[in-house]
Amino acid sequence: MGTTVTHAPAMEGLSKDKGSEPRHGPVKSSRPAALKRRGRRENLAGYLFMSPWIAGFLLLTAGPMVASLYFAFTDYNLFDAPRWIGLDNFSEMFGDPRWQHSVRVTLWYVVVGTPLKLLAALGVALLLAQSRRGQAFYRAAFYAPSLIGASVSIAIVWKAIFSDDAIVDRTQKLFGLNVGGWTGDPDMIIYSLVALTVWQFGAPMVIFLAGLKQVPRELYEAAEVDGAGKLRRFWNITLPLISPVLFFNVLLETIHSFQIFSSAYIVGGGAGGNACGPADGTMVYTCYLYVQGFENSRMGLASAMAWMLLVAVALVTAVLFWSQKRWVHYEEGAR
Amino acid sequence: MNAQATDITPATSTRAGGLRRRLPGSVAWHIGSLAILAVILYPVIWVIGGSFKRSEDIIGSLDLFPGDPITSNYTRLTEGIADISISTFFLNSLTLALGSVIGILVSCSLTAYAFARIRFAGRNLLFTLMIGTLLLPYHVLLIPQYVLFRNMEMINTYTPLLLPKYLATEAFFVFLMMQFMRNLPKELDEAARLDGCGHLRIYWSIVLPLCRPALITSAIFTFINAWNDFMGPLIYLNEPDKYTVSLGLKMFVDQEGLANYGGMIAMSLVALLPVLAFFLAFQRYLIDGMATSGLKG
């Protein structure tokens, strides 16, 4: 248990491949020519099977990334050829109060929404991990929002139930809070999006549950014999043993949150052509990127924004991977 | 895939006198679960009830279901949106979703097979690149891809939405299938190989049939993602008769808005139905697929 391996479970990759081929080493000396031919054939087969992916990678990922990096340093409106302007896009971006606002809104959404969602996911997973009658039913029901949550329909429903005089507003009035519906309030509307992402806790919950099921039961029994209370058992057994799964969830949910678009665009979008919320309340980063790129035809500026997002996400990923040495435990010899 | 799954029931390990201790715990457990269930289901029940209410009653009234249900919200939908029949939007979405499913199944399984079963030079590098794309924010590719498809005069066609699916750009599904394939016994390949089968035969006749669960999971996720997709169609489609259900719904909201709240809610529910149906039919595959994504296979 104590040993740490610096791989995320999902990122473990191919290093532990058992190898479908006969070992090359010992046979090599006897029949080198045949093996070489075989190796070449394997290479050919490999690249043939991979060819759709390779084409996609070059045409739709690597190529566009290079192009996007170039556009970031140009003034480009789709109709005239891109014109090199150096760092102007970046200086305009950093000085733009609306861009700064979109960064603040997005960070707020990520920092509040992701931990709440993961806490909900872990809490409910712990509850469901006690196998009782109906467990499978609850698990399925709690997972459902993760499938429909990204739809336009749910965004519309969300906008309705968080508006003035609807259920959320009425409920807070019961507690004497006369703040009105959230979707009409530029400061509150972002919390309706936080609520929407927390509502979709089912997907990380299912992953937590799978992790919890792999914790050996004997450990709890031994700990109970030793007189460890529930909290101690959670802190000293459960948490370290599910830390790889926790890491995976934190990584994916955080990266995902940075890219929120559809729900912000629809919950915030009004009939009056106001793209993202009253007073830009849901103007998250990608909404502003969309506005600049596709509504204002400023492809160069939008590319610069996209690259800033990439840098931010890469930094967060790097910090998370760096931090996992301190808190993520991988079982020795884990499959 | 995680065969050694054992349920953990820490509190019930001491069987003696268990029942007395378990009963209150069980009641609390069910109350807790039901409370969460109520919160989870509220929006879904709300939209079902709301679709039978008069527009002016939808927001203001707290009753989930109306005293005098009306069906005019639904009959109104048969008039279509902006003179386009609802069935057009459904057909468009269906075309895109099924096209995506075929693309993902073919391209991702080929890629996954190469990663899982073929030893070729440069495999580890390509694998690292693939995992990298899993973490890459899509928005970095949004603008250059748009420019590319625009230069190829493919705007307002389905090609920009479908082509990526046929080129295995969805690393998540490659990964899912690869995890599954790696756990198939290697002896199968070796036996087939001795019989003179090449990789294509092994892929088609042995590995693919055995991977059915992973293929079904990928197919359902792909269908649902394509059905829900909003940003792709928003950017690439600009003629309403090519719109998907998501775009049609958004157009409906923008055009009629509060004036026809009931119709909007009814349409929202209708748009959700295929996803809900898939979920009810295949929830096992979806949940198992999701659970595997976080664990080594």
Automatic annotation (TrEMBL), chain B:
UniProt entry keywords in alphabetical sequence: Cell membrane, Membrane, Transmembrane, Transmembrane helix, Transport
Signal peptide as annotated in the record: none
BP GO annotations: transmembrane transport
Cell location: Cell membrane
Topology in membrane: Multi-pass membrane protein
TM region positions: 27-48, 89-113, 125-143, 163-181, 202-224, 261-282
One of the record's GO cellular component terms: plasma membrane
Top-level lineage group: Bacteria
Main location: membrane
Residue stretches making up the ABC transmembrane type-1 domain: 90-282
Family classification: Belongs to the binding-protein-dependent transport system permease family.
Protein name as it appears in the record: Carbohydrate ABC transporter permease
UniProt lineage: Bacteria, Bacillati, Actinomycetota, Actinomycetes, Kitasatosporales
